[in-house]
Amino acid sequence: MSTRETAGTMLTEDDAARICAAAETSCPHLFDLYTRLHSAPELSCQEVMTSRLIADELETSGFRVTRDVGGHGVVAVLENGRGPTVMVRADLDGLPIEEKTGLPYASRARATLPGKGEVGVMHACGHDIHMTVLVGTARLLHSLRDRWRGTLVLVGQPAEEIGAGARAMINDGLFTRFPRPHCALALHVSPSLAAGTVGIREGLFWAGCVSLELLIRGVGGHGSRPHETKDPIVMAAETILLLQTIVSREMDPVEPAVLTVGSIHGGTKGNIIPEEVLLQVNYRYFSPETDRRLRAAVERTARGVAVAAGLPDDRMPVVSEQYTGVPVRNEPELSRRISSAFRAVLGRKNVLRVERSTFSDDFSLFGSIEPEIPLCYFLLGTAPFSRAGARERGVPGIHNPCFAPLPEPTITSGVKAMCAAALEALLGSTHPTEKP
What angle do CA 27, 33, 34 make, to 5 degrees? Predict the structure, then answer.
């Protein structure tokens, strides 16, 4: 077997062959793990069994495991001599969605969502795939210890869906209690890409995200005498419609931005005008200036509607922040090297350059801690058709109750790609023995 370096990457042909062979061999066990994870999802901050299962799997794979970091977070460390430290992250939580895929391993889980009551729970964002790939990567890189030197830090992150898990793990000492990485890697499933492919780009990739709660306050009363009230239902409706003009009429048309009102709760009965209505607002941005303008416009619009309705100062709307996340930015040189490593294990035609997206992920926070940690974040195709075919045939997207990733070749390709990325980062560091 030739060991010459593959063009553009530190991986050799022998490395690529070993990764591919081991990934194919591990498929049956990983599929079993995937179905277990898929059928038993847990909500953000409730990932007790999921965390335990991933911790056990990583421990069995030969890593030193610490549990309950930043909530239900898992940190697994494998030290293999002097060299760079590379972090790989997967997220643990599911979504409050009742699954409708009809799969034999479909989730029937239910849980209590704070403030909302009992809900169905589903891995509608592919975190079950992410965790399965993390475990497969752990096993393969442990078996390849003769090929690299350094330290691997594998992270099972809770509460990604509410934008809280990365910050909680950092605050609980992720970069002080454990080796601080020279770079961090993560992937996310994409039903816009065919299973067996990956998508990557250099630089700005995914958007920053802000979620706000907007409490519209009024003066309640009987539905038959609206003139004696200040109706928050009407004010909420007016606010929602006006919020939709912020992006179309206040933002530069060439600067991407998205604003969505995803939840509205208010009232108990048709003939009662309530005291208040709660809106949940989410917006996405790529630049700090757009972030500032969107936030100011949301607050100004809500207050303007209240003033127009004649509300006194003590009944003005209350805006509270649920969570924020900065844009995901891939370090260019690291991403170029990892793209070459992907081509070595997946083939050139299966490695695609993708465009920016208004999705968001709090993985970005791991790179924003001073001194900054270089990130590489990539997409893992899950669709049973070509990229164009997926759109034409209406393959359900993420956060949809019918989202059903094609397990194979998705899992095997994910393990190949993440192993290649991590090994490239371990082999290609220009300062392999220095602290970052």
Answer: 85
3-state secondary structure of 272: strand
The whole-model pTM stands at 0.91
What is the number of domains present in the chain? Answer: 2
Residue where a domain stops, chosen among 283, 310, 325:
325
* Domain span holding position 387: 13-206+327-428
Distances (CA, A) of 18 to 1, 23, 298: 10, 8, 53
Distances (CA, A) of 377 to 129, 160, 206, 366, 421: 15, 15, 9, 12, 10
pLDDT digits (tens, 9 = 90+) for 289-317: 999 999 999 999 999 999 999 999 999 99
**Are 198 and 214 in the same domain?**
no
Using alpha carbons, select from 248, 261, 243, 257 the residue that is nearest to residue 304: 243
Q: Does 310 share its domain with 354? A: no
Peptide bond into 409 cis (omega under 30): yes
Establish if 57 belongs to a structural domain: yes
pLDDT, tens only, 150-171: 999 999 999 999 999 999 999 9
Looking at the fold, whether 228 and 94 belong to one and the same domain comes out as no
CA distance 86 to 332: 17
Q: Which letter does DSSP use for residue 164 in this model?
A: -
